[in-house]
Design goal:
This protein has about 400 residues and is an all-alpha fold. The protein has helices at about 5-25, 30-60, 65-95, 110-115, 120-125, 130-135, 140-155, 160-185, 185-205, 205-210, 215-245, 245-255, 255-265, 265-280, 285-300, 300-320, 325-340, 350-360, 375-400. Helix content is about 75%, strand content about 0%. The structure holds aspartic acid (ASP). Aspartic acid binds near residues 265, 344, 348, 349 and 378.
């Protein structure tokens, strides 16, 4: 019998999980543990994987000139696509105006005060005072910063040492990728547990279902429509126009990480699968994936940026705030910062809205208005975040002259 491809297995398990979670929510503890184990396994490999991936990537890039060029392109792509996403969100929110007349109710949301801290602090915290603390608490930006510095200086020491260290980190990376491939086999089972548990949790929440009938429903439609435009039109168009590759062939290759991003609501937890798929399926070199993808999972969040913008405007509309051009520009700029500052974990984007609310003078507790429907939007924005990272890797790889495993776009 022909083996069913992994992404079909995941899709089937996702559908079964929705049915199970909805109809058998009382028996959720029988299956939820599979999701927990899967997530724990992914989290277990993230830190050693990021560290070895970036260090081996930087040593392979070779020289500060190449590193600077690659870094420049990567940051340019991140900034451009995030602003494009925010603009799409801005457009649809102005078109539908979902927040006009929405009832204002504020529920307590944890972590708002801390998230409202300045962007300067986020940048400052990038430099760890204790790398071991950063590693043990999983502070991604600090780990990435240290790995880049460490990798760069490996190339600056005597050859005998640099060969030793390069070999060591290349070997560690290979081993981590082997572990990743092993864990990936369990994705359908893990996804089943994760999604069934999420659905069961939401199915009991009648208040959220009732709220969706009103303005929150419009709000969801606005976010989903804008995300779809960015996901299915804008990003594929960039891959087609700049990289001259078939974006939908690439999309098919990315099915496993995208479904996992959707199920886990975490770009960071999905990173091992993203690295594997972009490298082994689409065929981007390790040199580029190992640098761009971990960075992307942490700072490039198009879905989150778009969502930040729509959510903040929705709240502002509900509060009858005058949304003149200047206010909208502030929203665009702060949505970008908030998406960069958001960690790749579930609900990070929700609390980061406080950065925008502070900037336009609205109370932080207003975030509670959209809490009820955040879960499903989180799944969608996380998939968009990961999709954008992978498109970036393709575009950058092509600009560096690489040949990929995607069918060529015909020019005739
Ligand atoms: N969950 C998202 C991610 O991991 C971040 C967010 O909450 O927007 O990419």
């Amino acid at each position: 019998m022909k083996k069913i491809e992994l992404h079909w297995q995941i899709l089937i398990s996702l559908i079964l999980a929705i049915l199970y979670g909805y109809f058998l929510s009382d028996y959720i503890s029988y299956v939820a543990w599979t999701g927990d184990i899967f997530l724990r396994a992914l989290k277990m490999i993230i830190v050693p994987l990021i560290l070895s991936s970036i260090i081996s990537g930087i040593t392979n890039i070779g020289g500060s000139e190449n590193l600077g060029r690659l870094g420049g392109k990567t940051l340019l792509y991140y900034a451009f696509t995030s602003v494009l996403a925010i603009t799409t969100g801005l457009f649809f929110t102005n078109l539908f105006r979902p927040g006009i007349g929405a009832p204002i109710d504020s529920k307590p949301v944890e972590g708002l005060e801390a998230a409202a801290g300045s962007f300067g602090d986020t940048l400052m915290n990038m430099i760890p005072t204790n790398i071991f603390e950063a590693l043990s608490t999983g502070q991604m930006l600090s780990i990435i910063f240290f790995a880049i510095v460490f990798g760069y200086f490996i190339t600056q020491v005597e050859e005998k040492y640099s060969t030793l260290m390069t070999d060591f980190f290349n070997a560690t990376f290979e081993i981590m990728m082997k572990i990743t491939s092993f864990i990936i086999k369990f994705t359908p089972i893990g996804v089943f547990g994760l999604v069934a548990a999420t659905v069961a949790e939401q199915a009991d929440d009648q208040a959220a279902l009732a709220a969706m009938a009103g303005s929150l429903g419009w709000y969801m439609i606005t976010v989903i429509l804008a995300l779809s435009v960015h996901f299915f039109i804008s990003l594929p168009l960039l891959v087609f126009l700049i990289a001259r590759e078939n974006p939908f062939a690439h999309l098919r290759n990315m099915a496993t990480p995208l479904l996992t991003a959707f199920s886990t609501s975490s770009s960071s937890a999905t990173l091992p699968l993203t690295l594997e798929a972009v490298e082994h399926k689409t065929g981007v070199s390790n040199k580029i994936t190992s640098f761009t993808l971990p960075l992307g999972a942490t700072v490039n969040m198009d879905g989150t940026a778009l969502y930040e913008c729509v959510a903040a405007l929705f709240i502002a509309q509900a509060y009858n705030l005058n949304l003149d051009l200047q206010t909208q520009l502030i929203v665009v700029a702060t949505a970008l910062l908030a998406s960069i500052g958001a960690a790749g974990i579930p609900m990070a984007g929700l609390v980061m809205i406080s950065v925008i609310l502070t900037a336009i003078g609205l109370p932080l507790e207003a975030v509670g208005m959209i809490l009820a429907v955040d879960r499903v939007l989180d799944m969608m924005r996380t998939a968009t975040n990961v999709w954008s990272d992978t498109c970036g890797a393709v575009i950058i790889a092509k600009s560096e002259g690489e040949t990929l495993n995607l069918k060529k776009v015909s020019h005739s």
